[in-house]
Every structure is written in C-alpha cells, then in structure tokens.
UniProtKB/TrEMBL annotation:
Residues 70-206 form the Methyltransferase domain. It comes from the Eukaryota. It comes from Oikopleura dioica (Tunicate). This is Arsenite methyltransferase. The keyword Signal does not apply.
Length: 336
C-alpha cells in the first residue's frame, strides 16, 4: 500500500466507532457477525467478557475464533482495539499468548489501556496479550521469526492492504507447518473500479477487496492449502455509492487456510473425527467438507497431510485406502 493510502486508513479508523458507518454497512456487519450455527459456550462467554468500550471499536466482518486454542501462540493481523485478541486470550489460557498487530496507534493505545481490565476479568496472573504497531505485510520488521506461530486470525483487514500477496507471503513464512490462518475478509466477484479504489472512505469500508478466485492462486504460490470456506454473507455498501461500485457483488467470507507440511502423503485416506473437541459433534474443515463424529470420510492426500500436521491431528484417526482413484467402489467394511 502506498504511504498515502496507509495514512488514509489510519485516519479513517483512528477515531471511528461502529455507529459512524452507513446504515447499510452496519446492517451488513451485524449479519456477517451473526453465527450460522450455535457458538460453543466457551466462545460465547469469551466474547461477553470483552470490555464494552472495546466492543464499540470492533469493525470485523465475521467470527474468527477457531477451536482448540489452549496453549497456542495466536497473531491477530489488524487487531484494532483488540476485541478478538482479548476474547482469544481467554481461550489460549495462561500457557498461550495473543499478539495483536495493527498500524493505527490510536486503536492500539486504546487496547493497551484495557489490558489490565481483561487480565483481571480472565483471572490471569499476567497479561497474555501483547500489541505491536506495524504493518501486517511486514511482520519481519516486528520480530516475527519463521515457523513460529500456531494460529493467525484477521477480521476484515487484509482488504485494506494494497498488495494482498505480501500479506500471505508473510503468513506462509511465520506460521508453523500445520498452522492455520482463520480469517474473514471482503471479496468481489470481479475487479473493483479504479475510481472506487481511489475513494479513501470506500477503501476503508472494504472496496479494496480482491477477486475471490485470486486467493487460491496466492495460496498455491506460497505453499498454503486451498482456502477452506467456512461461511459467506452478502456485503453491502450504501446506495449512494452504486455508481462507483458498478455491478460488482461483494461478500464477507470466512476461510481456514493451513500451511502445508514439507512432506505430503499419497493416495486416498479415510479420516475419522473422534468427537472429542468440546461442543463440536461434527468437525467442519470447510463448508463442503465435514467430519461427523466416528464417521470415516474419504479425503485426498493433500487434505489428510494438512490434518495430520495440524493441531487437530489428535482428534482424528487416519487409514490409508489402497485404491488410488476416488471413482472406484469403496469397501463397505472400511466403514463398519
């Protein structure tokens, strides 16, 4: 992102509150943050335990809290005032930590002022939240080492950067093999006009969105899994900007992307979820790939490699299927 655009985003979000958005966009954000299915009790409680003033400075377009976070190091890319960071700090526990990265000084200062309140609320001996000011596409400048982070999240922030590829290059560098980025962002079905991108207000509200299909190409380039879609909702701007946006359709999408291990399995596998993740009877890797408890699911080698290398591995059993072609008849005795 050019310096002028960075400064415009900082200024836009520095003193912003959710009520400053248009009615259409506020309705969109509320819909995007409404879970498509019930949230686990621990997640609901963690969100309730975030300070009211921090909640007012939350501008996300999705719910970016994956399961199995105990003891993890989590990085929140574009953390703002820290809503998601403070919620997740309760879920990683005192053996884990959350590092929030943002370029907007005012929001980080606001988060810093509420760290102690959240530490006391969580009854932690010391705060497990750290904020760093900088750019999410330049994590090396903030001291993030290669293969050092378990989980990354981001909530409607990557669309604010000019070169999205630079963000994912850093994600691939910093994540451990098997680590994941679980994030929500705004996407278009076609490129946005230059006129819309030149509008600082529209850019700040998400008009810097990339075309959805570009994400998979970027992931392949940097050794990341295909983007596993978790949910999608319409993303609407105000009616007064239709002329600038033209016929582009926008969506707020939540994805899970896993950093591939160095060595991948071959062939087809049966993966069986044991049902032992708290309150998750059916594990959703993607909206079109779910693992009901104790039910073998046929998956390709790339998927089983990613699951095996991830923190979810201990909740699965894996069995190699001899036949290489997914179109061949399955052995019924593999399922009983």
């Amino acid at each position: 992102m050019c310096d002028a655009k960075k400064e415009s985003v900082k200024e836009f979000y520095g003193k912003l509150k959710t009520e400053d958005f248009s009615d259409s966009l506020n309705e969109t954000l509320q819909a995007c943050n409404r879970p498509k299915c019930g949230l686990p009790k621990r997640v609901r409680e963690a969100l309730k335990n975030v300070h009211e003033e921090v909640q007012k400075r939350y501008f996300g377009c999705g719910l970016c809290i994956p399961p199995v976070l105990e003891g993890c190091t989590v990085v929140d890319l574009g953390c703002g005032a820290g809503r998601d960071a403070f919620a997740i700090s309760q879920l990683v526990g005192e053996s884990g930590k959350v590092i929030g990265v943002d370029m907007t000084e005012e929001l980080l200062q606001f988060g810093e002022r509420h760290k102690e309140w959240h530490r006391e609320k969580a009854q932690h001996k010391a705060s497990n939240v750290e904020f760093k000011q900088g750019y999410i596409e330049k994590l090396g400048e903030l001291g993030f080492e290669d293969n050092s982070v378990d989980v990354m999240i981001s909530n409607c922030v990557i669309c604010l950067t000019a070169v999205k590829e630079d963000v994912f290059k850093e994600v691939a560098r910093v994540l451990k093999p098997g680590g994941e980025i679980y994030f929500s962002d705004c996407y278009g079905n076609k490129p946005v006009s230059k006129e819309a991108q030149d509008s600082d207000k529209l850019w700040g509200e998400g008009a810097g969105a990339m075309v959805w299909s570009e994400l998979g190409e970027i992931c392949e380039k940097f050794g990341l899994s295909i983007p596993y879609m978790q949910s999608a909702s319409p993303y609407k701007f105000g009616d007064n900007v239709k002329d600038l946006l033209g016929d582009v359709i926008f969506a707020a999408v939540t994805w899970r992307i896993i950093k591939k291990p160095e060595n991948e399995e071959k062939g087809l596998w049966l993966a069986t979820y044991n049902g032992e993740i708290e309150e998750i009877c059916s594990f959703q890797l993607a909206q079109n790939l779910k693992f009901p408890k104790n039910t073998p699911v046929l998956v390709h080698s790339s998927t089983v490699s990613e699951l095996k290398s991830s923190r979810y591995s201990k909740f699965f059993t894996f069995q190699k299927v001899e036949n290489e072609s997914a179109s061949r008849q399955l052995n019924p005795f593999d399922f009983i």
